[in-house]
C-alpha cells in the first residue's frame, strides 16, 4: 500500500478514535499543521482509508473517519493491537 510515516500516524489515530475527529483535532493529535494535513487526508481518502464529511453544525469543519477498508488495513498491519 505504501504509506509514509505521516499517513500511517494519521490512520493510526483515526483507527483508535471512538468518534470522527475534525481536521483541527487530528492535526493536534499527530502534531502536524492543518495545511499539511489536508494533503495527507486527501491521499488517504484516495486510497479509500479515510472519509471526510460535512459537519452540519459548522460548515467550516470537516470530520474525518477511518473507513472499513482503513480499519481492515490497520487490523492486518497491527494484528495484536
Q: Level of helix content?
A: 40-55%
**What is the N-to-C order of secondary-structure elements (H for helix, E for strand)?**
HHHEEH
Largest sheet: 2 strands, antiparallel
* Helix/strand/pairing category: mainly alpha
Kindly report the average pLDDT value: 89
Contiguous helical run count: 4
Instruction: Work out the number of β strands.
Output: 2
The quaternary organization reads as: single chain
Large-scale geometry: globular
Strand order of the largest sheet: 1-2
Query: Roughly how many Å is the radius of gyration?
Result: 12 Å
Low-confidence stretches: none
User: Span from first to last CA?
Assistant: 20 Å
What percentage of the residues does DSSP assign to strands (E)? 5-15%
How would you sum up this structure, described in words?
By secondary structure, this protein is mostly helical. The protein has 4 helices and 2 strands, in the order H-H-H-E-E-H. 53% of the residues lie in helices and 7% in strands. The longest helix has 13 residues, at 34-46. The protein has a two-stranded antiparallel sheet with strand order 1-2. It has helices spanning 5-16, 23-30, 34-46, 68-77; strands spanning 50-52, 64-66. Helix 1 (5-16) crosses helix 3.
List keywords for this structure.
53% helix; two-stranded antiparallel ribbon; 7% strand; globular; single chain; 2 strands; mainly alpha; 81 residues
Secondary-structure map with pairings?
Blueprint: H1 5-16, H2 23-30, H3 34-46, E1 50-52, E2 64-66, H4 68-77
Antiparallel strand pairs: 1-2
Helix pairs in contact: 1-3
Brief overview, please?
The protein has 81 residues and is mainly alpha-helical.
